[in-house]
Every structure is written in C-alpha cells, then in structure tokens.
Amino acid sequence: MRHGKKNNHLGRTASHRAAMLSNMASSLILHKRVITTVAKAKALRKYVEPLLTKSKSDTTHSRRTVFSYLQNKESVKELFDGVSAKIANRPGGYTRILKTGTRLGDNAEMCIIELVDYNEDMLTTTGTAAAAKPKTRRRSSGKKTTDAQGSTDAPAATSGDAAATDSAETPAAE
Q: Locations of Low complexity compositional bias (predicted)?
C-alpha cells in the first residue's frame, strides 16, 4: 500500500522526473506560462512554489539553493530580479492552473499553468469584478420609501415623454 506517499511519479525514473520538473520550472519562470498536462502541472506547482517563496529573500544562500533545483542561470536571474518583486506581497499561491480540455492524440487532460501576477487579462477582470460587486446588491422590499421613489421616477418619465412627443410631432408638422 502507498499510504502517505504523495509524490506523483509521472511514469518516470527519479532522475528523469527531477530533470523534467527543473526544465518546466525554468520555462515557467522565463515565459510566465506553460502548456502541459494536468498531472505534470500539479507536480510542477509543488516543485516551483517553494522556489518562488525562497526567491523573496535575495541572499547568496537562497540563490544557490534555487540554482541547485533549476540549473539555469537565466531563470535564476529572472526569478530573483523580476518575479520576486511582483510576488513580494503575496503570501502564497503563485501559480494558476487553467484547464483547456483534452489533447487530440491521446485524450490527455491539458492545461495552462501560469504565474498569477503576470496574467494581465485576469488582473483587469478581477479589478472590474470587485468594483462591480457592490452594484449587484438588492435593497430589501420593507425599506422602500414612496417619496424617494416617486420623486426620482417622475421627472425622468416626464422629460422622456416630452422628448418623445416633440419628435413625433415634428415630422407631422412638416
């Protein structure tokens, strides 16, 4: 039985799995998103999130520790210079997995794993959704006042009706 063994072996030897996750983590850091299978994305998330947390403290020791996992100078430089500045305030959850359907050849579940702070479309959508949220609240029916409702609806209706009658009469007069 495999009680307490959380590691997904992904059908690979330990050295192959470590090399694959290292390469995928470097690609994720450099390109900010990677298209892969769901199983690999979940394994990659467990691999790369501790590295992202470690990048918040820019010390020689943390750089060497991260380099021992990534084995790529460019990705380590990008991680400590660019990515760590964006994720400095975030307490965790640096990656997002977006499922995209199945692959045509073998029907494997595919997804996009990306760094959360680099998807500009999601960031702008989240900002507008947060601003729109208070507008969706409804007032309970017991708290309506007839004076306030009647005074706001009446002038709008009369001005709209007057404009409609003026435009209707103008073509008839000509």
A: 151-174
Selection from 100, 64, 78, 90 nearest residue 28 by Cα: 78
pTM: 0.70
Give the chain's domain count: 1
Return the ∠ at Cα 76 (arms to 73 and 77), rounded to 5°: 85
Contact 114/33 with Cβ under 8 angstroms? yes
Residue 173: enclosing H or E segment and its boundaries? helix 146-173
Give the C-alpha separation, 117 to 122, whole Å: 9
How does pLDDT run across 96-123, given as a tens digit for each residue?
999 999 999 999 999 999 999 998 888 7
Rg (CA), the chain: 28
Q: Sheet with 33-37: list strands edge to edge.
A: 33-37, 109-115, 95-102
In a domain, 162, yes or no: no
pLDDT tens, 108-165?
999 999 999 998 888 787 666 555 555 666 677 766 666 655 555 555 555 555 555 5
The one-letter amino acid code at 94 reads Y
Give the Cα separation of 135 and 14 in Å (integer). Answer: 53
Question: Nearest-CA neighbor of 54 among 34, 25, 32?
Answer: 25
